[in-house]
Design a protein that fits this description.
Order of helices and strands: EHHEEEEEEHH
Helix content: 25-40%
CATH architecture: 2-Layer Sandwich
Number of helices: 4
Strand order of the largest sheet: 1-7-6-5-4-3-2
Strand content: 35-45%
Structural class: alpha+beta
Radius of gyration: 17 Å
Largest sheet: 7 strands, antiparallel
Pfam family, one: COXG
Region (Disordered): 147-171
Protein name: Carbon monoxide dehydrogenase subunit G
Oligomer: single chain
InterPro entries: CO_DH_gsu, START-like_dom_sf
């Protein structure tokens, strides 16, 4: 199954790049994330709870960065499994483009589900994958707007001119 899309993030490309590789940022953004830790050789290992149709599962997996061209492009490979429910593997590419003070994040990839998850049907699995990606980038955008990405500063309020942005108070 192929999947692609894009999101506009209210932060400079350098902050978005750092956030996409930051353990705490990723943990806060991955829907259902229960655990996330750095993995040897680049990438992360972790566990996330998912629901695909009637099937609830905790997938344990690994995402490996297979190529990185800072701050423009990341290529990743992922595997995830639950012995009772199945799992899947996939690969994808994320590109970051500057657009003024914001960053356009485009992604494309392939997902191959297996086991019971794979038997539920491509349409259902693709829908859950899209919903999870949307939730991830919605939360990532919220953190960016609040200045909570590594090295980030809050985005200006919509009615406030960008050149006259006030610094936000940090706790």
């Amino acid at each position: 199954m192929d999947i692609s899309g894009s999101h506009r993030i209210p932060a400079p490309r350098a902050s978005v790049w750092a956030g996409l590789q930051d353990q705490e940022t990723l943990k806060a953004c991955i829907p259902g994330c229960r655990d996330l830790a750095p993995a040897g050789g680049g990438g992360f290992e972790g566990a996330a709870e998912i629901k695909v149709g009637p099937l609830k599962s905790t997938l344990e997996g690994r995402v490996r960065i297979s190529q990185a061209e800072e701050p423009h492009r990341l290529a990743i490979a992922a595997t995830a499994a639950d012995p009772a429910a199945g799992g899947g593997e996939g690969e994808g590419e994320i590109t970051l483009s500057e657009d003024g003070a914001e960053t356009l994040v485009a992604y494309s990839g392939r997902i191959e589900p297996s086991g019971k998850i794979g038997q539920l049907g491509g349409r259902l699995v693709t829908g859950v994958a899209r919903q999870s990606i949307e939730a991830f980038f919605t939360r990532f955008s919220e953190l960016a707007a609040a200045g909570a990405l590594p090295g980030g500063s809050p985005a200006p309020a919509p009615d406030e001119p960008r050149a006259h942005r006030r610094p936000a108070a940090r706790p």
